[in-house]
Write a structure and sequence with these properties.
single chain, about 325 residues, alpha/beta, Rossmann fold, Dihydrodipicolinate Reductase, domain 2, 2 domains, nine-stranded mixed β-sheet, 14 strands, Gfo/Idh/MocA-like_OxRdtase_N, NAD(P)-bd_dom_sf
Length: about 325
Amino acid sequence: MLKVGVLGAGHLGKIHLRLLNQSTKYVLVGFYDPNQDNANKVSEEFGYRSFSSIEELIKEVDVVDIVTPTLSHFDCAKLAIKAGKHVFLEKPITNTVAEAEELIALTKTHGVKGQVGHVERFNPAFQAVSTMIENPMFIETHRLAEFNPRGTDVPVVLDLMIHDLDAILSVVKSPVKKVNASGVAILSESPDIANARIEFENGCVANVTASRISMKNMRKSRFFQRDAYISVDYLEKVCEVVKMKEAPEIPGDFDLIFQNAEGVKKQIYYNNPSVLPNNAILEELETFADAINNNSTPVVTLEDGTAALRLAYQIIDAFQK
């Protein structure tokens, strides 16, 4: 099994520690947190080994799981990669696109793998339909959250919307052509509400909305393509697939048939896949172990994380225009 260490023992870091300790694909060696009081508390409460420095932890592991604030991702990952360690980075991959590109180059130089924690790729509702999303031409997403001071040091685009940007980029196989966006700061110094219209070169359009000052939580996406409408509720972990095909000559009593102005008849039918429950964070961590052990490509590569970050900054830049 791979020896793993965690950098950062905050809210999400503690979740990673617990899951890695349960995993059958890793041996949890310990963690490092610069806040000594917090490190002592976590170590005493859960029994995890606390290291006195990042360098000390890196020496003893095969994989470094970086769950620190985004501003420190680059420096932590650079230390680990140069030491020949594989790195798992929570999203967003780094603070800047230039930093992310440098990490990609470093992993190639040092022959190690990296994965980014875009966890919605492992949401069972998205997994159930991802292979059915083929050449979508219109996408609409809403990611709304009640206010939480944690994460408000960055715009809502980097805090919340980036999840949907990664999911969209994973199914739209076309370069971004144009971005229009608006964002408003309500309680924070950076935008708390944002909307973006993303146009791709193949004609696909994505309308993406994110808010962290909503009265209720919502995480929904809808994908429209020539033969289907596909919806994903990431929060409730349910999905719906509505498909269309040529209407039969003699429709059944319960067939749903529509006829357009030209007289063409289509049959509407449901093709809803089963959603298999999982722990998305554990699955993303364990698929990274599989990629290392099998020398295969991680599900969410550093290049994927960089593409999502690049698009996020295109949206933020569009606020000024």
